[in-house]
UniProtKB/TrEMBL annotation:
Coiled coil: none annotated. Belongs to the NAD(P)-dependent epimerase/dehydratase family. UDP-glucuronic acid decarboxylase subfamily. This is UDP-glucuronate decarboxylase. InterPro entries: NAD(P)-bd_dom, NAD(P)-bd_dom_sf, UXS-like. One of its GO terms (molecular function) is NAD+ binding. It comes from Methanomicrobium antiquum. Its EC number is 4.1.1.35.
Length: 314
């Protein structure tokens, strides 16, 4: 059945891939974005598509449209971007969630929230299951994002309990792939761009901190599977790839894959940088039948090709 689907943050990295998938499935997509970190270039290939509509709008303001489903992704995701205007980040998370929940309530439609592994903060339990309540420093520089996303989850569950809304909450772990912003400061984009330019690879701290990286196509499958899961399964559900690497290992893999002359240099570790992160994904497997398929080196190959093209055309 053809649906009209709203994707907020649809001109961003993950959002633009979601728009692609929903259009491929035959739906009509309304993409709403204020172009803070995303841009028209991420969806320029869709602009001529009669099933695609792009609206410049900030979700901290009310939005009156008619749709059958809502994916709420609007929010800067990289530490550099979300700390640029931290109060605005919290507003986007919280007021944005209220507006999109109000819209879902008026229309009686399902709504999916792109939450994050950051709700676990610097975790003291490893790997992280969904029932772990986290270790967030609520007054630190990452709190605008972490606490904003935590409050958005609270709002989703209150609208579910109070108004019977069909909510779907996913906690996304580090995701990478084509259309990441080359200057967003995230580790994969930084390392690939540095390696391709034969510049120093900047490892923060000793590089012993770990992350688990999920290729964007795997994530998007999980997102749509969650939206289409039976009503009553609200999550939160972790979506991420449990293969864990240290940041130093990642640097070495990228140097090798790009055949780069770059040297590794060590820079100060940012405040409150989580020491380890790895999703427990039994719930996604059991409830959605979702398991990520794409290995780090395969995903990196596609991402390196993408950045190669971006840098060549620069
Ligand atoms: P992104 O920065 O590429 O995309 C976010 C999009 O939201 C951008 O296009 C931006 O312009 C838009 N936006 C920001 N504030 C807005 C506002 N007030 N109104 C309307 N649009 C606004 O980041 P991404 O990596 O694609 O992340 C998408 C979502 O997934 C975010 O909610 C993020 O928190 C979540 N997430 C991402 C990751 C990851 O590893 N990429 C991990 C966990 C959670
Ligand atoms: N809202 C919106 N679009 C709608 C309906 C509501 O943007 O179609 C916003 C509106 O700004 C409102 C918020 O969602 O403040 C929360 O709506 P809700 O009905 O839950 O609460 P209330 O209207 O009582 O504040
Ligand atoms: N990082 C790094 N060098 C960089 C960028 C990031 O060593 O040039 C580290 C960062 O300190 C963190 C990890 O890589 O420990 C992942 O950082 P990212 O910003 O990608 O995501 P997040 O910290 O939100 O998981």
């Amino acid at each position: 059945m053809k649906k009209q689907i709203l994707v907020t943050g649809g001109a961003g990295f993950i959002g633009s891939h979601l728009c692609d998938k929903l259009l491929n499935e035959g739906h009509y997509v309304l993409c709403v974005d204020n172009f803070f970190t995303g841009g028209r270039e991420n969806v320029s290939h869709l602009l001529g598509n009669e099933n695609f509509e792009l609206i410049r709008h900030d979700v901290t303001f009310p939005l009156y449209v008619e749709v059958d489903e809502i994916y709420n992704l609007a929010c800067p995701a990289s530490p550099v971007h979300y700390q640029y205007n931290p109060a605005q980040t919290t507003k986007t998370c919280v007021v944005g969630a209220i507006n999109m929940l109000g819209l879902a309530k008026r229309l009686h439609v399902p709504i999916l929230q792109a939450s994050t592994s950051e709700v676990y903060g610097d975790p003291t339990i490893h790997p992280q299951p969904e029932n772990y309540r986290g270790n967030v420093n609520q007054i630190g520089p990452r709190a605008c994002y972490d606490e904003g996303k935590r409050c958005a989850e609270t709002l989703f569950f209150d609208y579910h309990r109070q108004h019977g809304l069909n909510i779907k909450v996913i906690r996304i772990f580090n995701t990478y792939g084509p259309r990441m912003h080359p200057n967003d400061g995230r580790v994969i984009s930084n390392f690939i761009v540095q390696a391709l330019k034969n510049k120093d690879i900047t490892v923060y701290g000793t590089g012993s901190q770990t992350r688990s990286f999920c290729y964007v196509d795997d994530l998007i499958k999980g997102m749509t599977m969650m939206m289409n899961s039976k009503e009553g399964f609200t999550g939160p559900v972790n979506l991420g790839n449990p293969c864990e690497f240290t940041i130093l290992e990642l640097a070495e893999i990228i140097i090798k894959m790009t055949d780069s002359k770059s040297k590794i240099v060590f820079k100060p570790l940012p405040e409150d940088d989580p020491k380890q992160r790895k999703p427990q994904i039994n719930l996604a497997e059991e409830k959605l039948g979702w398991v990520p398929q794409i290995k780090l080196e395969d995903g990196l190959k596609k991402t390196i090709n993408y950045f190669n093209d971006v840098l060549t055309n620069d």
